[in-house]
Amino acid sequence: MGATIAAGGLCGWSLKDALAQPLERLAQGIPTVVLGQTKWESKIVGLGTIFRPEGQWTKKESDAVIGMLIENGINLIETAAVYGDAEERVGSALRPFRRDKVFLIVKSTKVTKDGLLRQLESSLAKLRTDYADCLMLHNYSTFIEYDRVMGPGGGFEALLQAQKDGKARFLGISSHGCSVIMSAMKSGKFDLFVLPFNAAHREFARALDLAVRLKANTLIMKPFGGSGLLKYNDKDPLQLPVTLSVAECLGYVLSHPGARMAIPNMSTPEHVKGVLAAAATFRPLSADEKKAVEAKGDRVHAGVCLECPKPCDKACRTRVPVSYILSHVQDMHRLGYNHRRWGDEYQVLEHDFMDCDGCGECEKACPRKLSIRKELENYEKTIRENHFADVLMFEKTYR
Ligand code: SF4
Ligand code: SF4
Fold first, then answer.
1. What separation in Å is there between the alpha carbon of 368 and the centre of ligand 2?
2. Model pLDDT for residues 36-86, shown as the tens digit of each residue
3. Domain boundary among 273, 296, 319
C-alpha cells in the first residue's frame, strides 16, 4: 500500500455489512491520501466521470450522487472535454459547494497551444469555474503524439500559460502508453499522472515502480478493467462478472506502493455504493492475496483480444475483419449497444462475419488461442437481438 494512505476506514467490517450502511457513512469511512506537492488530502477513491450510456444517470441523479459524494469527503473529480456531457453535469452538481471543496482535474486532447487554451475556456465555462486544480494533457500514448504536444506551439505551452494566468494550479498528463508516461514522469514537468492499472492489465506496474522511486503522484484509471472486461454487475454491486470482485480489484490496485488513489467511473448510483463499500473496507493485500488476484486477472485476460499485430486477419482467406470484429464486441460491451459512435464514425465494410466459412485458420494464428468462430457467431446473435443496423460499418482508418 502507498505508505501515505492514512489509517482509518471501516477495516474490520465485512463488505456485506458495509454495503448495508448509508452512502454517507461509507464515504466518510474511506481512508485518505495526500497527493504530494499539491498537498491535497483526498480520499483514496475519486470520481472519474465518463457517464456511460449504459449507466443511464439522469441529470437529477448525477446532481444528487455527486453532491452526496462531495458532502461526505470524496473531493477529487476527474473529467474531460471528450466525456460527453460530463463537464456540464459536474458543473451543475458543484453549484451548491464552495469551489475549494473539490480538486477538479480538467483534461484536454488538444495538441496545439491555441486549441488547448480555447478548449480550456469552454471546459471552465461548462464546469462553472474559473480555474482547474490540475490541467492535464489527455491520453498521450505514443511518442509521436507526446513529442508533438510537448514541442513548440504544442499543448504543453498552453498548460504553462494557463498556470501563469491562474487558470490551472497544477499540471498533469494521462496516458495509455507505459513508456510515454514514464518519460513524462522523468521529465519533471508534471505534478499528477493518470494511468491504467488493474488485476487483468498489469503492464503499467513498471511505471508505478518508477513512480515510487520518483515520488510521482499517480491516479489509477480503469481499476476495474475499464474496457468492459470487468464490467460492473448490475445485480450485485460488490461483484464484477467473470471472477473478480470490486474489492479485489480495488484492493489490488491500491496495494501497489506506486498507486496513490483510484479514479473509477461509476456507471450507476448502485455502482457508487459498491465502490464506496470496497474503498471504506480497504486493507492492503498480502503477497499471497495479490498472487491469487493476479491469477484470476490472468483468467479474465486470457479470453480477450489484445489487438496484437492481427495475424488472424492475414490468415483469413475470405477477408473477414476478425480483429476489428473482436475489438468491436469488446467496445460494445464497454460503451453500450446504443452508443452514438456506431452510427457516426463508420463506413461500409467490404467483408464481414457472414463471409466466414468456418475454416479455423484464424484461431490457429491467434497467439491467445481465442475461440474466434464462437465470437463471430455470438456477434451475429448480438447484432440481431439488438436490432443493430450498423454491422456493416467500420472505421475509415481500418484499411
Ligand atoms: S474461421 Fe472464418 S474468420 Fe476464421 S479464417 Fe476461417 S473464414 Fe476467416
Ligand atoms: S490474433 Fe487473436 S489477439 Fe491478435 S488481433 Fe487476432 S483475435 Fe485478437
1. 7
2. 999 999 999 999 886 654 456 678 888 888 888 888 889 999 999 988 788
3. 296
Q: Which residues contact 129 (CB under 8 A, 6 or more apart)?
A: 91, 94, 99, 104
382 found inside a domain: yes
β-strand pairing of 217-221 with 192-196 = parallel
- On whether the CB atoms of residues 283 and 64 are closer than 8 A, the answer is no
% residues pLDDT > 70 (the chain): 78
Q: Side chain identity at 95, as an amino acid letter?
A: R
Report the nearest-CA residue for atom 7 of ligand 1. Answer: 356
Distance CA 73, CA 266 (A): 17
Residue 68 sits in the same domain as residue 117:
yes
User: Cβ neighbours of residue 344 under 8 Å, at least 6 residues apart?
Assistant: none
- For residue 226, report the distance from its CA to the centre of ligand 1, in Å: 29
Instruction: Give per-residue pLDDT as tens, 347-361.
Output: 456 777 889 999 999
Q: On the CB side of 236, how many CA atoms lie within 13 Å of its CA?
A: 11
Question: How far is the centre of ligand 1, averaged over its atoms, from the C-alpha of 360 (Å)?
Answer: 5
Considering every ligand atom shown, identify the ligand nearest to the alpha carbon of residue 315 and give its number: 1
Closest C-alpha among 109, 32, 108 to residue 76: 32
Q: Is 196 helix (H, G, I), strand (E, B) or coil?
A: strand
Can you give the pLDDT at residue 230?
A: 59
Q: Are residues 277 and 182 in the same domain?
A: yes
41: part of which helix (H) or strand (E)?
Answer: strand 41-43
Higher pLDDT, 399 or 107: 107
CA distance 379 to 219: 35
- If one compares 318 and 301, the residue with the highest pLDDT of the two is 318
* Number of alpha helices (DSSP H) and beta strands (DSSP E) in the chain: 17, 12
Cα gap 238→129, rounded to integer Å? 35
Say if CB 118 and CB 88 are below 8 A apart: no
79 beta partners: 106
Domain boundaries, position 318: 311-398
The total number of structural domains that make up the chain: 2
**Amino acid 202: pLDDT:** 86
**Mutate-to-test residue for ligand 1 from 362, 363, 370, 380, highest number of ligand atoms within 8 A of CB:** 362
Shared domain for 246 and 360, answered yes or no, is no
Q: Please tell me what DSSP assigns to residue 289.
A: H
